[in-house]
Amino acid sequence: MKFRTRLTLAMLAVVLIATAVGLLASASQVRASYREALHDLFQSGARSMIFVREAEMGAVKARCRRLASLPRLVAAFEGENLEDLYLTADDELREFGRRASEFAVGGRANSGFLFLDATNKPIGDGSGRPDFDARVAERWAREPAEVRATSAQRVAFVDDRGTPTEVLFTPVIDPATGERLLTLAIAFPYRVAAAVPTAGGGELRNGLLLAGKLFGGQLPGEVSATLAAGVGTSQDASEVEFQNAGASWIAYRKPLDPMDPSAQLVVAASLEPMHAALRRLMLSALASGSIGVILGVIVALVLSRGIARPISQLAEAARRVGSGDLAVRVPVGRRDEIGQLAARFNDMTHGLALRDKYRGLLDLVADPGIAEEMIGGTVDLGGVTTPAAVIFCDIRGFTPLTNRLSAHEVVDLLNEHMTALTEVVYRHGGVVDKFVGDLIMAVFGAPKPGTDDAVRAARCAVDMVMTRARINQGAKHPIEIGVGLAYGDMVAGCMGSRQRLNYTVLGDRVNLAARLCSVAPAMCVYADGAIRERLGAGWGVTPLEPLKVKGFSEPVQAYRLDSMETVKS
């Protein structure tokens, strides 16, 4: 492909990329602005609906508090005069000359009222609807005992045969003893507010999400399943997007009353006005991009005429350099970037000629293979057999411990534990090979062997137990560990697949250390005979009965390391 063609295509690519970036930035700004405005509308709408509801319920709460304080009501209850009990409540709850059975709030006629005794059972005939009375009693019984024992009013929501109903519970307290005698419950069907028009021809719809079921009829059914998860577990408002009949919606939920978070006010609106604005923006960007493409082609053709000839000269000179002619030079007749490129090309050919001259001199005084390694600087990490010590350390009783903790607590506990033991390994000059669940594997002597690898590994193993014991003194969840270590010849190198390699060690000494770790009691260190032979005076070592270890035909003589002469940093 010719340079002029490439330059033209490059100009087109620049124009298209600039158009796409501008379109994405504009679309992101439009989307963010619309979402922000919609979020503000959601919040203001939700606050308004909740405020109206609280204002409507204010008079009911005051009237019920007054009723609960009447001595006549307490006297009727203590005298077991149920008829007088309900007549007293009916008289007190009259509003503008209407009977309590017709008492309404905000245009909502109440569903009835009833009294509950100290055992949360309906008293008398209640509202005249036994099934409804039972649901109300059951809902009040779910309140904490300390809440039911106070004089504070509570609001809760129940599903009255497909009708969401809010119930105001007002305890009646014995003035003499301060104990709850009975509880007045008065219920009102919840009324969904009318939809509010929004900019762009949309609507702000609302409904009530109660115990995973959506009420109100304004919202699509998909929002019920989408928002039901987690309802009643948080006091915080939240937003979620969902699809309905191919259209995008966004819904906002907020607890209708902090006393009963299972009842969620849901406010939702369609995102179609936003998508329509984005489509208009895309059409405008396409028109602008088409004009930019035409102008780009014209500019590319003009520029390519002045650039193509010197570029061709550079291409020919590069071909000659590739053939070995380092004496070639390109004429420098311009002061722009093309002229600078020609000058740099000439400097490059001069430098290549000098490099070949110096390389020839290096080959005269040194072996060519050695010279190649010196220039390349490569390092070989292939597999080798080397004496080394390996440590395995894992947690005792880790599975039962994790069953009592959350996932977050388990991760924090493991991270704290592994960090402390890793610092111990590094302090004694070891290498952390890997972490496997609650197990840590460390190596001393690979890839760089030393004369005291076994002793440093033993010090590290005992220090691990001492460090863990020190941490346990102030730990919320103390941990006990078992440690096994062995020393001997093992294979060390990079092992794995072509896509991924790990530097590690293999061999029967590695297997023996793992087996000793598995049989070591909590907060104990088991070592093999090779480790014991290399320990000097001052160590507390207890020989064990020969152990039958899986993978070894003969019993293995092991030792318990009880103490060390010093813990060297």
Question: Could you describe the 3D structure shown?
Answer:
- By secondary structure, this protein is an alpha+beta fold.
- Among the domains are: 69-189, Beta-Lactamase, CATH 3.30.450; 384-563, 2-Layer Sandwich (Alpha-Beta Plaits), CATH 3.30.70.1230.
- It is 46% helix and 24% strand.
- It contains 14 helices and 20 strands.
- It has helices at 3-68, 71-78, 82-92, 130-141, 145-148, 222-228, 272-322, 337-365, 368-376, 398-403, 407-427, 453-472, 508-519, 529-534, and strands at 104-105, 108-109, 112-117, 154-160, 163-173, 180-189, 196-197, 203-210, 213-215, 238-244, 247-255, 263-270, 384-396, 431-436, 439-444, 480-496, 501-506, 524-528, 540-543, 558-563.
- The strands form four sheets. Strands 13, 14, 15, 16, 17, 18, 19 and 20 form an eight-stranded mixed beta sheet that branches. Strands 7, 8, 9, 10, 11 and 12 form a six-stranded antiparallel beta sheet that branches. A four-stranded antiparallel beta sheet has the order 3-6-5-4, sandwiched between helices.
- It is flat, with a radius of gyration of 41 Å.
- The model is unreliable at 96-102, 230-235 and 361-380 (pLDDT under 50).
